[in-house]
Structures are given as structure tokens and as C-alpha cells.
Amino acid sequence: MENDEHPLLSTMADDHNTIFGYEDDARPSTKIQGFLREFFIESKKLWYMAGAAIFTSVCQYSLGAITQIFAGNIGTSQLAAISIENNIVAGFACGILVGMGSGLETLCGIAFGANQLEMLGIYLQRSWIILNTTALMLMFVYVFATPILKLVGQTDEISEDAGTFALWMIPQLFAYAMNYPLAKFLQAQNKFMVLGVISAMVLALHAFFSWLLIAKLGWGMLGAAVVLNSSWWLIVLAQLLYILHGACGRAWTGFSWMAFQNLWGFLKLSVASGVMLALEVWYADSLTLLAGYLKNAEISVDASTICANILGLTTMVGFGFNAATSVRISNELGAIHPREAKISTVVVGITSLLTGLTLALILIITGKAYPSLFSNDTDVQELVYELTPLLGLCIVVYNLQLSLAGVAIGAGWQAYVAYVNFGCYYLFGIPLALLLGFKFNMGIQGIWWGVLSGSFLEGFVLLWIIYRTNWNYEASMAGDRLKQWGGETEESGV
């Protein structure tokens, strides 16, 4: 990330050792005033985008959470089956597709900052081609979900029910492949509010039809599948109608054969992005998977799933900061504004940390009340309450970590961070979780402690990488990244 020999650096002031551009010999009062002024300005920009992105993330995450709430009132077995499908099968596919979609986030953000708007639609279509092809391959995971779950040690009853539910959820898989590129395409143009409005409308419909089909008409898991599939495809269709109606100007000029050109460079970035975020998503999902190996697996899975749902809901704040930060960083680097990119990084780090602490405090205060919203089983409720302090720590760490990952996406560091994720999560976090949970008989709490430790280590490494970054160099390389990953065209001059 650091390279002081790049030719453009001789004409750009290196702000690595200054505070938001104020020299080290400036008076302390000047530094503080400058910091507060810059912090306030950047916070307004960040919250304008992050607020809508958080709202969108919460709405979309709530689709699955609402379904699981209704399923929990049907029975423990149905809740476990739907939870396993959502967190393991769909989580596996979602991790790959969300990650691969973040490659589009980098390119569209840089192109938008560089005012190369006509390339955004081309990038969108390339991402559709790659993600839908990937979804075709991932479909086999859904088809063979039952034997896969049995192979990894889930009980026969849960595996059979989850496998059946996975078959019914194949349409959702392709909705993911269409939705994530659409969302990144719109976010790069700062159209966060549009995504929020669409998600809110769909969520309201989803809640009503979940109650109607699952609770009122008694369709059970079939009703859950019908409502989830329909809701995700409704989001896709609404976004498509908005774009095709002409609301994006030069960013969308219609379907083009150029989408099939230069796919290799785009694919490499998409794969690197997919690995980076997939490792992130799968790691969180490991909490539910590992809980399935404990004694009283049903209670452990249900309790861990409830906590994972709460963690997932609160880290939607982190995903909102992630989306907003990646857009801010990529836009500023594309416009060759390294100082602004650095400011944005500092502001999102501080803001996400304070936000995570606030959410954790609220959760701990209400720790006795919320478990009953998800399950009628008193044993499950008690175990959830015992996990609440750990859950609060996870909320703080995950929100900061996701915000820092947004910096990495905006700067195009996906391949590098993928190695960091693998080392911190799978060479350290998972082995520690297994050791504490099974060897030292700490049960579900040991598993959560191990996973949290891996996340803490990953956050520390990301902080060190960002601290060592030379933003002048990163800005000077933005155009080269468009050529390397997005492909050159005579029309755009990319």
C-alpha cells in the first residue's frame, strides 16, 4: 500500500504525517479546530449516505428475520431448519455473491469519481453475467443441501427439513445475483435513498404476507419460501424499473455487447472480492454450524441463531457504513482527492466505533426482554441471555471491522485483505473456537469467544494496514485499476 517512488508523488504533498492536512508545527488549537471542522463536514456526507444504506440493510436483513420469528412460533424443528438454510446454505451463496458484487462497487465508484459515467452500465452488465453464471454453479449446493448438511454433522431431521427448504429457495439465489450488482450500481451514484424506499415498501408487504401465509393460513415452511422468494424478486424488479425508466442518465444507456468484452480482468477483481467478503460472511455463519455439534444441538442452534440474527441486524449498521465508505473512498480516489479519502477513513472509524458501543449498551440493558421475541422455549431464552455480554462485544468489533472493510473495497485491496481474513479467521479464530467450545467444554460460549477473538485480530490488522497507507499513491493508481479490472474502451478513454 506504500510506495514513495511513484512519479506522481513528487507533485503531491504527502499528508501521511499530518492531521487532515495541517502541518505538524501548527499550533495545537489550530489542529483541534481543523480536525473538528473537517470531521463535521465529512460526517454530514457520511451520514447522508450511511443513514439510507443502514436503513436499506436493516430492511433487507429483516426479511429473513421476520420469517424466522414466525417460524419460531410454529416449532423448534422448523425454526432450526429455516435457520440452517438461511445461515449455512443461503449464507454460503450470499457470501460469494455479495463479495463478487463488491468488485463492481470498486469500479463504479472510481469511474463515477473520474466522471466516466457511461462505463457504469457496462460494468453492471458484466457483473450480472459473472454473478448469474456463479449462481448456476452454486445451485448444486441447494440441490444437494441435505447430504451436505448430514456430511458436516447436522442431525438427520434438521438436514432433511433444511434440504427441502433449500430447494424451494433456489429462486432467491438468482435474485441475489441480480440484486447485488443493481445495489452497487445505484450506490456508486449516491442513490442510497432510492434503495431505502424500495426496501421499506417490500418489507411492509413481506411482514403482512408472512403473517398471512405462515401464521394465519398455516403454510409453514412452504409459506416462508414463497414470501422470501417473492420479496427478493420484487426488490430486483423495482430497482430495474427505476434504472430502465432513465433515472440514471449517462450511467445507463441500454444493454450493450461491450458487456461481454474484457471479462477476464473484471472476473479477477470479482473473484478476489468474492473471496474477501465470503470469508467474512461464512465466518459469522460458523457460529450456527459449530453449535450444531454440541449436546442439546437443537437448543444450542436455536440460541446461537437468535444471537446471530441480533448480531446480523445490528451489524447492518456496519454494512451501511461499509457501503457509504466504499463509495466515498472510491469516488475520492477516482477524482484524485487523496486527502479527502484519508479524512473519510478516520471519520468512519471513529463513528462506527461509537455507534457499535451505543448499540451494545442498548442490547445489554434490554437483555431480559428480547429473547422471548424469537422463541417460546424457556431453555433457549435463558441461553440467549447468557450469551448477551458476548453478543455486545461482537457488535462493537463487527461494526468497526465492516467499516474498515469498506475502506479496503473502495481502495481496491480485496485480494490483499482476503489473505488477512483467511489467516485471522480460519487459522486462528475457528481453531480457538473449537478448542474452547469442545476441548475445554465451554460450549456455545467458548465457540463465541473463539470467533470473537478472530474478528478482533482481523480488525487490528486492518487498522495497521490503513495507518500505513499512502493515500497519494492510492489516488494516483485509481486510473490504472480501471484499466486493469474494468478494461479499456476507446469511447470512455478508460
From TrEMBL:
**What Pfam families does the record point to?**
MatE (PF01554)
Which Gene Ontology cellular component terms are annotated? membrane
Q: Which UniProt keywords apply?
A: Membrane, Transmembrane, Transmembrane helix
Cell membrane as UniProt keyword: no
- Where is it predominantly found? membrane
GO molecular function annotation:
antiporter activity; xenobiotic transmembrane transporter activity
Cell compartment(s), UniProt: Membrane
Please report which protein family the annotation says this sequence is part of: Belongs to the multi antimicrobial extrusion (MATE) (TC 2.A.66.1) family.
Q: Name one GO biological process term.
A: xenobiotic detoxification by transmembrane export across the plasma membrane
Q: In its UniProt entry, what is this protein called?
A: Protein DETOXIFICATION
Residue intervals passing through the bilayer? 46-70, 90-115, 127-145, 165-182, 194-214, 220-244, 265-283, 303-324, 345-367, 387-409, 416-440, 446-467
Its topology with respect to the membrane?
Answer: Multi-pass membrane protein
